[in-house]
Amino acid sequence: MSRLIGFVFFLNLISSPGFAQRLSSLENEEVKGAVSDLRELEKSFGYNDYSLVEPLSELAILQTTMGSYVEANRSIDRAIQLIRRTGGLYTRDQLPYLRQKIENLAASGDWGKTRDQMEHINWFYLSKSNVTDVSLVNDLLHLSGMHLRGINEDFEMYQSYHFRSAMSLQWSALRVARINYGEKDERLVPIIYDLIKQYDLQRKAVEGGGSLGYQLRQYFPGSEWVRGRAETKDYFYYMGRRLLSQIGSIYSQSNELMLEKLAMTGLYTADWQALFGRHEEALRTYNKSYVQLESLYPDLTLLLFQQPKLIPLDRFYDSVGNALLAENLTKDNFLAPDMNFRLSFEEWGERFPYSRQPDVLTSPNDLQSQITVFSFSLVGVDDIENWVGTRKPQDFDRAIDTVLIEPKGFSGKQREILGRRVQSLRFRPKLIGGLPRDAEILLEYRKASRS
Known about the structure:
Elements: H1 2-15, H2 17-45, H3 53-66, H4 69-87, H5 95-108, H6 111-128, H7 135-153, H8 159-181, H9 188-208, H10 210-217, H11 229-252, H12 258-275, H13 279-296, H14 298-304, E1 309-311, H15 320-326, E2 341-346, E3 367-378, H16 384-389, E4 400-406, H17 412-424, E5 426-428, E6 431-432, E7 435-436, E8 439-450
Parallel strand pairs: 2-8
Antiparallel strand pairs: 1-5, 3-4, 3-8, 6-7
């Protein structure tokens, strides 16, 4: 109780006008100090000296933080011009500052100029970069992440453009990484897994229907040729399976803990099968992975599967130890068999509420959330063959008997919308002996809204 009171006091403190004013005053002092330091350097070295680049960039960071986006843009532009005076118009030294400019423009909400800058830097990568330069991998990944950000922050009419661009850049990053790292290097795995998650984002968009779903089903932007919804989802599914097979191929070359890594790849494959409604395949793959991991780590495997998880997971973990470490779980964290499990889900944003925010992004400053709490059940499977033979078996990966617990003030339509969104979520089930088990869930659902 004392911790709760302390937390509430902290929230009241930081939301008070006095605290905000003091914080703003401190930020203003930092900006004044940075400007003063910059003026001193100008007196010592001149207005166009290269030594001003880093101070200008640091000043821009402060200005962006304060919301002075126009001033920040001027500081970044000046830094870029100083770099070009020294290294030429197409020097790669300017790239970190071009990325900073894109981030500042996006933060300001001017996505028209943001898109222009993104197109410019994409041209730079394609025309002025060497594919054997390993830094190009991170350059492309950053731009892909900015397009993901645009899905939720730019105007809705540009969502399909950002979806397609993000995926194209992620594929390009993977190709460049293969050239630089080799086909079987484990550094490829996180790039591949982020690409898999992009296919899941597009699946959710297609299932959501509307103009966005239609545009993503077009063979190319503006095409009159449009795939059916089922055909498009099948395409996404098989692309994901292909990429998961590539991860398995990478780990099959490993001499160290190969069986564990392949079993973990199988676990993510089962998640993928469940996401696309291939439940019989998912059951068998979950069972196989569970048995393989149990043969290596009996106790840790029980701990890993003791509670359901929202899928797809944010990260790919290639070992039981890494997966448990990410959740801060140890052998002291075994849960009571019949307890209610507490999970949380936060919508990415108002323009794409069907998914959590991709982990490569940070939340916009003006994004808030309205908390609702649901209770529901996940059903178990006693025997795979009996489940398969059932005429209409219940899905083990989605909520049933959903009840909105709090708050109570929603209209019937609002409750229906939120209920459908909870129904659309998918879960890796609690597994015991390799089979899904019944689970009672309390879900903290955070509905996104802008301040």
